[in-house]
Design goal:
The protein is mainly β. It has helices at 113-116, 124-131, 188-191, 303-306; strands spanning 6-7, 17-20, 26-29, 36-38, 42-44, 53-55, 65-69, 72-80, 101-104, 110-112, 152-155, 175-179, 184-186, 196-199, 202-210, 220-221, 228-229, 233-235, 242-244, 268-271, 290-294, 299-301. The strands form 7 sheets. It has a 4-stranded antiparallel beta sheet with strand order 1-2-5-6, with no helix packed on it.
Length: 329
């Protein structure tokens, strides 16, 4: 009979933790990093009434103290579970409440566990096993030409998932950029995103890139697709026009509007060169190479969905169900 691996009285928890390494799909989140357990191995507590789940890697191995972290190298961090609702990570801008966080002993600087596990080199796994309680980092601060703030290049922990604060998509690859002024983790491409643009769907004013990190409500309504989005956005300083970074890539493929479709309003054909990660407003399927955009309704459509009949003879369904703000004559 196989002996179950356990971890006795780790500083993360008061009780003995038992390892589940059966590869079962777990729907709970890790108590340390707040990310889904999924099919990863995890430790759990059989004594606590609440569900205590901790990733075997890397959350069960996190150090109690961090020295010379690349994001804040001058001071020492200590791990704490006393996190308030008003505590936001100074690296990614996310709310630290509900999990553990590293707090600077000499300032109000805070890092959530995921950002604390970012390193300046790609052998962070070896560092954990060598030092156990402390990790030593080297510090360097590069800057990309199109970003107005200093950027810190860091390597990800391979066992955790990192989401770009700018575009809200998962960051693939080994490394990412941290901007402390934007409070964001960034793709290389997002770090080079222009700070000021002129957009054809708002030609009267320039648009400026703005982060919403550190706000309680990081969501906003995009003025083009009319959907709730988070992440960075391009704002007009003279009016309330705001567009998410994906819809900001929508550019008309031709100057004239297309009116031969059965949709109520003229549509603008746009090419999806940047693989817009959104779905068609009508059928909810991923958008393809060509996107038909209705500035009046604020919706993105496939060509076939733009050609839907205004009313179906088989059912009581009408296009006014999809676009309730518009009536059929």
């Amino acid at each position: 009979m196989r002996k179950t691996k356990s971890m006795s009285k780790h500083f993360l928890h008061m009780h003995e933790l038992e390892l589940n390494d059966k590869g079962e799909d777990c729907k709970d989140n890790c108590s340390i990093c707040k990310q889904p357990i999924s099919e990863s191995n995890f430790y759990h507590c059989n004594l606590c009434p609440e569900k205590i789940r901790i990733h075997e890697y890397s959350c069960s191995e996190i150090p109690l103290q961090l020295d010379h972290h690349p994001i804040h190298p001058l001071h020492i961090f200590f791990l704490s579970e006393k996190v308030r609702r008003t505590n936001f990570c100074h690296a990614c801008g996310g709310n630290c409440y509900g999990g553990f966080a590293y707090k600077c002993v000499d300032s109000a600087f805070i890092l959530d566990v995921n950002c604390a596990l970012l390193t300046k080199n790609n052998n962070n796994k070896q560092q954990y096993h060598q030092q156990k309680k402390k990790i030593q980092f080297q510090f360097q601060q590069p800057q990309l030409p199109n970003h107005p703030h200093p950027l810190i290049l860091c390597y990800k922990d391979k066992n955790l998932t990192y989401k770009c604060t700018c575009c809200s998509l998962t960051i693939d690859g080994d490394c990412l950029y941290v901007c402390l002024q934007c409070k964001g983790l960034l793709h290389h491409s997002c770090a080079e995103m222009p700070w000021k643009i002129e957009h054809p769907f708002h030609s009267s004013h320039s648009l400026f890139l703005q982060s919403r990190s550190g706000f309680y409500d990081r969501e906003f309504i995009c003025s083009l697709c009319c959907q709730r989005r988070d992440g960075f956005a391009y704002h007009c300083h003279k009016c309330k026009f705001v567009v998410d970074v994906h819809c900001a890539c929508l550019k008309p493929a031709r100057q004239t509007q297309i009116q031969q479709f059965t949709h109520f309003h003229p549509l603008v054909l746009c090419h999806n060169k940047d693989n817009l990660p959104y779905t068609c407003y009508a059928c909810l399927l991923p958008l393809e190479d060509s996107i038909y955009f209705c500035p009046e309704c604020g919706v993105l459509l496939h060509k076939k969905c733009a050609n839907l009949p205004q009313e179906s003879s088989n059912t009581s369904f009408t296009l006014s169900t999809l676009f309730p703000s518009t009536t059929i004559d």
